Amino acid sequence: MNFMYDQLGNGKSLHLFNVIDHYKREVLELEIEVVFSLPSEQLIHTLELL
């Protein structure tokens, strides 16, 4: 799992969450979650999909 953060030009924070299998070198989630807010419920839901 990897959490990444960035900031837009207007100062708004951007959060990215990826799940990658480094052994097989593939992304386990069908898409990378890119959101302005990442509440725990959304994170749990994404992990349950795996």
UniProtKB/TrEMBL annotation:
Keywords: Plasmid. This is Transposase.
